[in-house]
Design brief:
Blueprint (H helix, E strand, L loop, with lengths): L16 H12 L3 E6 L7 E7 L7 E6 L12 H11 L10 E5 L9 E5 L19 H19 L16 H12 L10 H10 L8 E3 L8 E4 L2 E5 L6 E3 L1 H11 L18 H10 L8 H25 L6 H19 L2
Antiparallel strand pairs: 1-2, 2-3, 3-5, 4-5, 6-9, 7-8
GO molecular function, one term: transferase activity
Protein name: Phosphotransferase
Length: 341
């Protein structure tokens, strides 16, 4: 996640907020000022800004691709803007409003888009360390509303939203994606991964009809006030595929007994069985064979954590998030293997 304005990482050029403000102003047709970095998606830079010709309290948000590299896959911020524009037509899936775009001239001048600022709290009650938890009733309401929203997302009519031309992913391809990720890390960050991958591949369930997927759906990627969601955010890895990929990932974050990074059993947080029922009652597609998808979710979590640990080592970091990720990877792989039994 970007922690400092204009510093997407040691391998990328610096982004100057003043230049971004100038580009955003031209794209919006209104002056934009006062860019401040926000915590956001890990693949792009996120800034809060203000309209210079409006009330001082009227903010907006800029999403900017990292400069110096092609804006493809999860760095493609204009692809994120596309799905947000499409979902603006869906009443039951709340997302920020896209206000303007600028394609830039990548990789040196990265693309960006502006969207409405949505006030709210973003946290995973069971997982995030060092947080002040909302009231238990609010935690319950948020989790149940998130399950209902996920069902609405998966009911989205792809043709009506203009997303029917997107290629649909397959379950074998999803396994291969994380196998390839494991193939780039040292052996100590992948103990038993090959065996889990083989077992996943040998037991692939029949796929459901493809739907619109968020890709990292959890309470930590929503903005909430009180007991309700106000917006679903961080759409870097949206795709078309089996709905149970999203559902299993969401339910994993609700289960402190299954998630290796869980810090607590948050008061008021519904368990996975309750949220699975809420999702189904709200019209979500099939919830069959979720044990296999839970194993795949843990395998994905292990692979992503291994990549984080590898990159932390490359930067010479011996403590912090990367080091913790390295410690957790073997347990994640073991849990994935257990879920398949």
């Amino acid at each position: 996640m970007p922690g400092q304005a204009g510093t997407p990482g040691p391998d990328h050029p610096v982004v100057q907020p003043a230049e971004l403000a100038e580009r955003a102003s031209a794209a919006a047709g209104r002056p934009v000022r006062d860019l401040v970095p926000l915590q956001g998606g890990a693949s792009s830079l996120t800034f809060r800004a203000r309209w210079a010709d409006g009330p001082a309290s009227e903010p907006l948000v800029l999403k900017v691709a990292p400069p110096g590299v092609p804006p493809v896959r999860n760095r493609d911020v204009l692809r994120q803007a596309k799905v947000l524009r499409s979902l603006a037509k869906e009443q039951d899936v709340l997302v920020p409003e896209v206000l303007f775009e600028d394609a830039g001239t990548p990789p040196d001048v990265p693309p960006l888009f502006g969207m409405s600022f949505v006030a709210g709290e973003s946290l995973d009650p069971n997982i995030d360390p060092d947080i002040t938890l909302p009231a238990p009733a609010d935690v319950t309401g948020r989790a149940r509303h998130a399950a209902e929203t996920l069902a609405a997302l998966h009911r989205t009519d792809l043709a009506r939203t203009g997303l029917d031309g997107e290629p649909a992913g397959t379950l074998p391809a999803e396994i291969d994606r994380w196998v390839r990720a494991f193939g780039t890390v040292p052996d100590d960050l992948r103990p038993g991964a090959d065996a889990v991958a083989e077992q996943l591949g040998a037991t692939v369930p029949r796929a459901c009809d493809p739907v619109l997927l968020h890709g990292d759906y959890r309470l930590g990627n929503t903005l909430c006030e009180g007991s309700r969601l106000r917006a679903v955010i961080d759409w870097e890895i949206w795709s078309i595929g089996d709905p149970r990929l999203d559902l299993a990932w969401f339910l994993l974050t609700a289960d402190p007994d299954a998630h290796p990074s869980a810090q607590r059993r948050a008061p008021g947080m519904p368990g996975p069985d309750e949220l699975r029922a809420v999702y189904a009652d709200a019209g979500g597609p099939s919830t069959e064979n979720l044990e296999w998808f839970e194993a795949l979710a843990l395998f994905k979590l292990a692979a992503a954590s291994a990549l984080i640990a590898k990159n932390a080592r490359r930067r010479g970091e011996t403590s912090g998030f990367g080091a913790r990720a390295a410690e957790q990877v073997p347990d994640m792989i073991a849990r994935a293997r257990t879920a398949l039994v």
